From TrEMBL:
It comes from Chromobacterium indicum. It comes from the Bacteria. PANTHER family: BIFUNCTIONAL DEAMINASE-REDUCTASE DOMAIN PROTEIN, DIHYDROFOLATE REDUCTASE FAMILY PROTEIN (AFU_ORTHOLOGUE AFUA_8G06820). The lineage of its organism: Bacteria, Pseudomonadati, Pseudomonadota, Betaproteobacteria, Neisseriales. Residues 43-198 form the Bacterial bifunctional deaminase-reductase C-terminal domain. This is Dihydrofolate reductase family protein.
Length: 219
């Protein structure tokens, strides 16, 4: 069975994975775009999201590429799919990425409100899971067929899986920025008690990369 892992999860120096007041105009919260400047500069990100060429090819780029290795399915929190809250008002919103999202596999979106499966161009299919994080993980593992399941965020989704000690590998990219407020990733979580330890620290060009593992999990 593959790992459940988080990759390329950007975090501020003061521990926030998103800024405050997330909205359509500020999908990452106010100030949240600064968390991801390290990724935007890489060649891998520009290929995935812009279809273009160019970008940096150093350490940061290597972590972006590594994040897609052996991924057979994804899990996303609802905030990662869109800015809407509560019952779906309609089915018009189809994600932040346009008609061809970068996942190119089956994606399981955590929500309290059911919605029909949504097939997109490029091989991405969104399934909306309203019966909890364990159900989403079970379905994603089945879809992954022995490969890894990547948990894309957001902060609340990662916290839920951390709290249950279900994440096998957590890669954090610490961005050189302070947010002051927003969504704190580790607030109230005792990571050593949950079985996590830091196994790798690698300085990149624009971020510092940390790899947290549960004991017994290979890096």
């Amino acid at each position: 069975m593959g790992k459940l892992r988080v990759a390329c999860f950007s975090l501020s120096i003061d521990g926030f994975g998103a800024g405050p007041a997330q909205s359509l105009d500020h999908p990452l919260g106010i100030g949240g775009m600064a968390l991801h400047q390290w990724a935007f500069a890489t060649a891998a990100f520009q290929r995935l999201h812009g279809g273009g060429i160019g970008g940096e090819t150093g350490v940061d780029n290597g972590f972006i590429e590594r994040g897609f290795d052996n991924v057979g399915a994804w899990i996303l929190g609802r905030n990662m799919f869109g800015p809407l809250r509560g019952p779906w008002p309609d089915l018009e919103w189809k994600g932040w990425w346009g008609e061809e999202p970068p996942y190119r596999t089956q994606v399981f979106v955590l929500t309290h409100h059911p919605r029909p499966t949504l097939a997109m161009k490029g091989g991405t299919t969104f399934h909306f899971v309203s019966d909890g994080v364990l159900s989403a993980l079970e379905r994603a593992r089945e879809a992954a067929g022995g490969r890894d399941v990547r948990l894309g965020g957001g902060v609340d989704a990662v916290r839920q899986y951390l709290r249950a000690s279900l994440i096998d590998e957590l890669h954090l990219a610490i961005a050189p920025t302070l947010l002051g407020s927003g969504e704190a990733l580790f607030a109230g979580l005792d990571l050593p008690a949950l079985g996590y330890q830091c196994e790798e620290l690698v300085p990149g060009e624009r971020a510092c990369h940390l790899l947290l593992l549960r004991p017994g999990m290979p890096a």
